[in-house]
Every structure is written in C-alpha cells, then in structure tokens.
Design a protein that fits this description.
One of its GO terms (molecular function) is DNA binding. By secondary structure, the chain is mainly α. It is about 70% helix and about 0% strand.
C-alpha cells in the first residue's frame, strides 16, 4: 500500500489486516499499533543496510575505493528493497517516540561504522587528511537522507547509476588519489 503512494497515516489497521489476509484482532495480537510494526521492521532495514555495505563496514582495514563503491551500491539496493518501510519510518518518526528513537539508533550505528571505516583507511595511509570522523558522519547522513527521499522515485534500471554517483562523491571525499 505504501508502494502504491499511500502514506502510513492513510492506511488503517483494517487495511493492513485485509492485505495480509488476517483478522484485525490477529494484527493486535502481534503489534500494539502501526508504530510497533514499523519499529520491528526497522531492525531488518538496518541489518540489510549494514550487510549491503559489504567490506566497507565488515573489513574496512582491507577496503579500497572499489569496495566502497560496491558498499554504496549495496546500500542503494537495500534502500530500494525497503523503500516502503523507509517511507513508513519517515511518516511515523515525527509522531512516534519509539520509531524516532530507533531511527536515531540506526543512524548512530551507521555513522559509527562509517567513522571506523574511515579511520581504518587512515591507518592504511590511503585517506585524505580532511576525511575526518565528522566527514564520515556527514557523508552517512547525506547518503541516507538522499536515499530516503529519492530512491523510491528511481526506476530499478537506474539504481546502478545512482550508486555510481553516490559512490563517486563518497570515494572522492575519503580516498587519496581519486
């Protein structure tokens, strides 16, 4: 329903239950409200974003510019895969303290992983002097906010060029000699 252009606020519990082919009471057996549903799904989104980053987050001490490009591509595809959940997070975060807190935790986690990766590139002597922890945090926020707002408007056939553009910006900000 979100992928059809409806905001989460427009979708009722009855709509969700009907689409899932369950009784309304069954929904409430598992979730107290839409916010709790979205909160549970956020864990899946966060894991897929981290997994999508590949070597950039998992083994950054060996990462090179190509690994970062691949990581950005994985992140782009994770956002596309979960665009409906990301839209629901956007809808609920301003009004639901739990969703907002979980979103902030997700961003803190992503920023921390980016900072560690940039630090590892510095340890290898491959990073620009200006590629600080603050730059890592800013790049994480820029990429996340851009993908949150625009990946749903991007056709699947255009995801690689979007990933290439974000990868170019990110690699250029971090690595020497590019």
């Amino acid at each position: 329903m979100l992928e059809e252009g409806n905001s989460l606020g427009q979708i009722t519990i009855d709509d969700l239950a009907s689409r899932a082919d369950i009784a309304r009471s069954t929904f409430y057996t598992h979730f107290k409200d839409k916010g709790e549903l979205v909160a549970r799904l956020m864990g899946v989104v966060t894991k897929d974003i981290i997994d999508g980053a590949g070597l950039w987050f998992k083994n950054s001490e060996k990462a090179n510019p190509e690994d970062l490009h691949e990581g950005i591509k994985g992140i782009v595809y994770a956002f596309k895969k979960h665009q409906a959940i990301v839209a629901a997070i956007q809808d609920l975060a301003p009004h639901d303290d739990n969703v907002r807190r979980l979103y902030e935790e997700m961003m803190t986690t992503l920023c921390h992983k980016s900072e560690l990766a940039v630090h590892a590139v510095h340890q290898q002597g491959k990073a620009k002097k200006q590629a600080t922890a603050e730059v890592a945090k800013i790049l994480t926020w820029i990429n996340t906010l851009y993908l949150t707002n625009f990946v749903s408007k991007c056709e699947s056939k255009d995801l690689d060029s979007l990933a290439e553009a974000l990868g170019h910006i990110t690699v250029s900000a971090i690595f020497n000699g590019n």
